[in-house]
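Two proteins were folded this term; both appear here.
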Amino acid sequence: MAVATKTPLLTLHNISKRFGAVQALSGVDFEVYPGEVVGLVGDNGAGKSTLVKTIAGIHSPDSGEILFEGHPVTITGPRDAAQLGISTVYQDLALCDNLDVVANLYLGRELTEAEVLDEVRMERRAIEVLKGLQVKIRIVRNVVASLSGGQRQSVAVARSVMWNSKVVLLDEPTAALGVAQTKQVLDLIRRLRDQGLGVVVISHNLADVFEVCDRIVVLWLGRPGGSFDVRETSREKVVAAITGAEFGGPADAAPADDPTAAKGIAP
């Protein structure tokens, strides 16, 4: 886990975001250090999606400050986030099933030589990246549709870190995976941490969160719900923060997490 005296890779301070009448985020602070896995958790409607999309450049905050490696930055779109070194792997993975692993890793960033695809160089680099992450895919020319769920998730993560990423956001990385595939993905997350990346895991699965995360940040009704060191807390305390029990709120409150999806408001 990262040493607290280090400068955070990513810092969000007092972030607020409103969609019409819906206050999706209010005064949210968030940070992730190099070599740290942070779990971002909360009930449906807590604001997780809005916060992640704010970091990824899909939404712009109404107020607050974003710092990257200690310097104030403005993220106006996904390209700005990518240039900083922030990568997001969404739950749908955004892979092309009919293309092979190499083509997916280089999708939109293909290498060329004399205006011809440099397949050899791309394949060598793909094998190197997968090997560095200890991703077990024997034949990188197999189409993605033939891979297991864990392998597909690994390909999506590998693509996100190929381009000098420093912070990786993983949206429900173990959703709908079996036990063996979940272990494969959690091991990959640990390897990203060991390589010094900051990793944010958005998940409803507290068992996975407690297994792989160093720190857990809770959102409740779009507001900060607490930050917990995994080594010094319990699942009961985190659940209490998620449901609002620690704040005297009803456990069944249900505001809109991402109003652009829930309320049909344009992003």
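Next, the second protein.
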Amino acid sequence: MISSSLLDRAYELLLSTRVRQRAERSILGVAILGFLVHLLLIVLADIGVLTVGADSKMLSNPILATYTPFSFIIVYEVYMLVYYLPRSITTYISKQYEIITLIIIRRLFKDLGNLEITSNWFDVRGDLQFTYDLVASLVLFYLLYLFMLKGKQALPERIETSPQPAVLARFIRFKKGLSVLLIPILFILAVYTLVTWSLGAISPSTATPLPFKNINSIFFDQFFTILIMVDVILLLFSFFLTKQFHKVMRNSGFIVSTILIRLSFSTEGLINVILIVSSVLFGLLILSIHNLYQRKSEVFDNDESVYDPAK
């Protein structure tokens, strides 16, 4: 068991507001640098200074250079997801939705550089996927707005029904410990997947232990698998705070939503987009129904109901 002082030091080192601000500035700088480097590589490949394989589509069009800064922006969103985990469950879930939306936006930039402008637009697989992603990004953007709005509209819990302060404090510290643990796990996973993919890109014949379906799924299929386990752990430990049905349903529904996102990485085309949009829509409906229960708390509360800090 991590001591309280050690946990506090680790949390301050990795997830404090000061560290978040530094991470934001650093990621922005790296994103700009990554964009310029990617653009330079494309120019070198175009003039023949850099020799690339026929399958290297990421150096075929200057528009594709936008893929790199978006990748770093998504990395920052991953950090923000862990940052908000101890603070707010609904914000933590909204960060998951922001990440998958940005992944689709990033995919749009990738596909934009390889569009085939023809009269048979809907017969070309790449152009059709671009159309799916274009519509999905708008739908997700709006659903995310509604989800965040519903999260802000959630009624505050009544303090007089709160559990013993020690129980609440232990749960908050548990979430902090979970966040601190996630930072090195995700960092190791990111480095491992980046190195593995890079080796495979440089030498396609190299056998890699991670079967990447495409470049868009690198890191994030494993990342959302980890999030599913985190969500299940949070659900189980939340039973120490509340046994109210609508709160159990809300937390369980968020797990289902994360699973749908994870499943999307194993699919392509229209099914991929449907799974992603369905995951956010399901989370929005779950939160909306939960808020309806909250507004009738005098009907549904009972003597065993306790304070839920994750409003």
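The CA atoms of residues 90 and 151 lie 6 Å apart. The chain has ten helices and no strands. These notes refer to the second protein only.
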